[in-house]
Amino acid sequence: MIMVFCVAMAAAQNKHVVTFYNVENLYDTINAPYMGDDDMLPLADKEWDSKRYFDKVTSIASVISDMTSFGDFPVIVGLAEVENRGVVEDIANSKILEEANYGVCHYDSDDERAIDVAMLYRKDLFNLHGSCAAKVDLASPTRDILVAWGELCGEPALVMIMHWPSRVGGVHLTRPLRAACAAKVREIVDSVNAKAPNTKIIIMGDMNDTPRNHSVRRVLGASNKADSDIYNPFAKQIARGSMVYDGRWYLYDQIMLSQNLMSGDGLHLLTSKKGGRRVKNVGIRPAGVFSPAYLLDRHGYPLSTYEGDEYTGGVSDHLPVYVIMCGGK
Question: Which one, 58, 91, 152, 321, has least CB within 10 Å?
């Protein structure tokens, strides 16, 4: 009986996919002096040329397009490790994504590797009212937090996309850097909740920390507890991870939601209710890691574009993560 109920609910509701993808060093082939792209040029050891660039852009667009298996093109696509607005526009303008009619939101950051975060959004479902790049006050420049606000499926919404500092140099030494980023996100959330509590908030990114780490669980205050004002579906360990380092999986890529996206008649995380009890839709994960076989190597790990200087032709060393919401338009 429950299975029939859940399937019927899934069929009746509009499903909207939100995804985040660290696309691993998406540089164009043009030298930008003092911008940290020297390794990714045609005459560099990696021999990064136009063919390899456009192959990667097409592959990223194909991954986004393949998420139509959940129902439709993703309404929001968060991206990390993009060099500039031009590479994001190349993804959005790919023939594969023509139907989605994506808009682009991007800001150049002061990151020493010249990699930024960006957002693609479906202009028919997300009415962008404004955006900004929120800076985190650290001794060394890091990626800005992209903040965009407007109406998502007719409801007030704010989206934050981020790529927190890596663990290079040691986990404990770099922990305060990620904690500072988490504190900045928490500050923005608290400000929005105080001024416009009905706003639906979506937080996504490569945190370089897992859901259980201090920055996410303690500083940001995100968890899978029902009363958490920032709900993190990835805290349930719904997958081994989204990337592999030294043979071990890590779930650094996450999407989190404000409590008002967890239930109700409006836009909310894909769930059903039976007798007051929340039940996942049968056959459809409300949140997960997108891992088709073509994104994996022979070991089942994400297939990166390069292994050292050797071109392998993979899309990224990360897998995209997603949540599925329903309601709205």
Answer: 58
The span from the first CA to the last CA of the chain, in angstroms, equals 28
> Cβ(57)–Cβ(89) under 8 Å?
no
Domains of the chain: 2-326 (3.60.10.10)
Q: Which of 307, 305, 306 is nearest to 315 (CA)?
A: 305
- pLDDT < 50 stretches in the chain: 1-12, 272-282
- Whether this prediction's pTM lies above 0.90 is answered by yes
Is-contact 105 96, C-beta < 8 A? no
Separation CA 298–CA 293 (nearest Å): 9
Compute, in degrees rounded to 10, the torsion defined by CA atoms 304, 310, 312, 315.
30
3-state secondary structure the chain: CHHHHHHHHHHHCCEEEEEEEEEEEECCCCCCCCCCCCCCCCCCCCCCCHHHHHHHHHHHHHHHHHHHHHCCCCCEEEEEEECCHHHHHHHHCCHHHHHHCEEEEECCCCCCCCCEEEEEEECCCEEEEEEEEECCCCCCCCCCEEEEEEEECCEEEEEEEEECCCCCCCHHHHHHHHHHHHHHHHHHHHHHHHHCCCCEEEEEEECCCCCCCHHHHHHCCEECCCCCCEECHHHHCCCCCCEEECCEEECCEEEEEEHHHCCCCCCEECCEEECCEEECCCCCCCEEECCCHHHECCCCCECCCEECCEECCCCCCECCEEEEEECCC
The separation between CA 22 and the C-alpha centre of its own chain, rounded to angstroms, equals: 7
Distance CA 19, CA 323 (A): 7
pLDDT tens profile 177-235? 999 999 999 999 999 999 999 999 999 999 999 999 999 999 999 999 988 999 999 99
